[in-house]
Amino acid sequence: MFVMGTLPQVARPAILVVVPSLKKGTVIVDAGANVDCKPRHLVQFGLMGSIYAERILNIAKPRVGVLSNGEEQGKGNDLTRAASEQLAATSLNFIGYVEGRDIFGDLVDVVVCDGFTGNIALKTMEGVASFAGAVLKNAFQKNLSSRLGYLLSRNSLAEAYRRLDYAEYGGAPLIGLDGVAIIAHGGSSPLAIKNAIRAARDAVDQQINLHIADALGDTDGVGAKKEGLPRKLWERFKSKIESLGEKTESDADPEERRGGGE
Q: What pLDDT does residue 113 have?
């Protein structure tokens, strides 16, 4: 964020992940960058995720939903209810609340949530995938007939594993930056790194940032060179000093401010 900066009008960059589903994949945003969010942040997450799903996954009019503890309108918390209301007023193909079980089905294309919830959901998926793999491995090693069954079905199992393998997706874009950054898994294999580079190339080729800035209504600054880090730090430092001076003046003794003190 300090080196690249953010796109115009983007309040919070977010981690975007694509998880396997019965269709082309489901986009989850945010998956861990912002644990505390405001409704307008979730609205921007939905917009950025929708653009990514449309441009990268080739999904026409992606269906956007807010991750909640139920599909009913009265469910959720203050954040999800406010975000849902604001998303419904946008031009996005918003379908309302979705539950965790809907992520892998054919109901939603973009799942919006705060980074705290999204990261827990993502880590839970990783744990379930590892558990399922261990259970299948034990089942196929149980006896001679199960081993024979594995030999007969190993090609199909390999294809299924490929669809579930995180390495096939490469990495998670930190979307909303004025540039392209891909967050790779800590245990990335050479295949995962190769696909992370592919994901970065696709983001550039499909001009994801240009479409996000255009959707947010401010394309003028997309190609412009942003102020460097020293200038940003100086402006932030100057603002802090000025606000500190204003606070000191307001806290001064009333008699002294009127000139009545000795």
A: 96
d(CA 72, CA 80): 12
Q: Does pTM top 0.70 for this prediction?
A: yes
Angle at 169 (CA atoms; ends 168, 171), nearest 5 degrees: 130
**Residues 19, 21, 25, 27, Cα dihedral to 10°:** -50
- If you average pLDDT over every residue of the chain, what do you get? 81
The angle that helices 208-215 and 39-55 make with each other, rounded to 10 degrees, is 140
| Separation between Cα atoms, residue 213 and residue 8, nearest integer Å | 6
**In whole angstroms, what is the distance from residue 183 CA to residue 195 CA?**
12
39-98 tens-digit pLDDT: 999 999 999 999 999 999 999 999 999 999 988 888 889 999 999 999 999 999 999 999
CA 17 to mean position of chain CA atoms: 6
